[in-house]
Design a protein that fits this description.
The protein has 14 helices and no strands. It is mostly helical. The protein folds into two domains: 139 residues, no CATH class; 201 residues, Methane Monooxygenase Hydroxylase, Chain G, domain 1 (Up-down Bundle). Helix 2 crosses helix 6, helix 3 runs antiparallel to helix 4 and helix 3 runs antiparallel to helix 6. The longest helix has 31 residues. The chain is elongated.
Length: 352
């Protein structure tokens, strides 16, 4: 695809702002499309933060320009500009502006060097067109093929669920139904690291999501669901790392065959559940994804595992092997409980 929706939206919005500024007859209208281009990238939540920083940086630059231009007339102009820019950088850092101080710096330099004879007209028009461009960019992200951070977070979770269910199936497949071991491991530490990287990518969008959801985002059902999913996915990924480190060996495979069969059955059941999650989070919607109606059903092999563990014959296995089995079973139970707890809260957040 040569042109994406986001690129077309940006071009359309910038063109509209440029056309409006030209028709208005007001000077310095080119600042409106510049504001659009600098803000209308990514999602609505990200644009909110960029717009906030751009406006704060604009106000800070205007204030320091006026203070420096009239208050530092008695010293050489290059030194006065340097002092003003240094003050801007210090105040920008204090206000935690990651981008806005650059806008303020441009205002200081352009106002001092280019528009010094016309500050009275240039400053209000510069501020007006910046505000207009930011507002138009935000409207475009809500009206023209809406780009919400929430949709992006849901899609990233859908991709993570797909990767998790594929990994769980691989973990189950390597547990042979006959002897408890299917040869070399199909899941490696690299798979665990890839899953962790996917979860980190989701977490990096949370600041933008909080901006998008407005005041008290922790009370929003979507944010509550995402917080629960973050904890659940973290536990499910920890299971992958633990199962990889505690891979079964071929020793005493026949003796422990029933245990491994129960593990494999549970892993396949969890993989099927994650596949259902992935399907529901992949759909585009304006509301929360629909929670599964029925509770997670555990396979019979897993439910009858306690009887297998009471078999005295298992005591003949080496202690190290038994400890490894205990660790794997604990990880499986934690993953099952994590999915159950997530679905319970998910259902509680659905509208009645």
């Amino acid at each position: 695809m040569l042109i994406t929706r986001s690129e077309l939206r940006l071009a359309l919005t910038a063109g509209l702002s440029n056309g409006f500024s030209s028709l208005s007859g007001l000077a310095f209208g080119y600042y409106a499309p510049l504001a659009v281009v600098s803000v209308a990238t990514g999602s609505y939540g990200g644009a909110l933060e960029l717009g906030r920083q751009r406006l704060l940086g604009t106000v800070l630059g205007i204030v320091l320009l006026l203070v420096g231009y009239w208050g530092l007339k008695g010293i050489p102009m290059p030194l006065a500009v340097a002092i003003t820019l240094a003050a801007l950088r210090l105040l920008g850092g204090w206000l935690k502006l990651l981008v806005g101080y650059k806008v303020g710096g441009l205002i200081v330099v352009m106002g001092w060097l280019v528009h010094a004879d016309n500050l009275v007209n240039w400053i209000p028009l510069r501020f007006f067109w910046t505000v207009f461009g930011v507002l138009l960019a935000l409207l475009s992200l809500r009206l023209f093929w809406p780009a919400r951070t929430l949709d992006g977070v849901f899609q990233l979770y859908a991709d993570l669920f797909q990767d998790l269910q594929r990994t769980y199936r691989l973990l189950a497949e390597r547990l042979d139904a006959q002897n408890g071991y299917a040869g070399s491991a199909d899941v490696s530490v690299d798979d665990y690291r890839r899953l962790r990287a996917r979860l980190v990518a989701v977490r990096q969008l949370l600041p933008q999501l909080r901006q998008e959801l407005g005041g008290s985002p922790e009370r929003h059902p979507s944010y509550q669901l995402i917080s629960r999913l973050d904890d659940t996915c973290s536990r499910l990924i920890v299971m992958v790392g633990g199962m990889t480190r505690q891979a079964p060996s071929a020793d005493h495979a026949a003796l422990l065959s029933s245990v491994h069969q129960a593990e494999a059955a549970l892993l396949l059941s969890l993989a099927s559940r994650l596949e259902l999650w992935q399907q529901r989070f992949s759909l585009r919607r304006r509301t929360l994804p629909q929670a599964p109606e029925d509770a997670l059903q555990l396979p019979d092999r897993w439910l009858t595992l306690n009887a297998e563990l009471n078999n005295p014959a298992l005591n003949s296995a080496p202690l190290q092997r038994l400890q490894r089995i205990a660790t794997r079973l604990l990880l499986c139970r934690q993953a099952e409980q994590a999915i159950r707890a997530a679905e319970e809260q998910w259902r509680s957040l659905m509208p009645r």
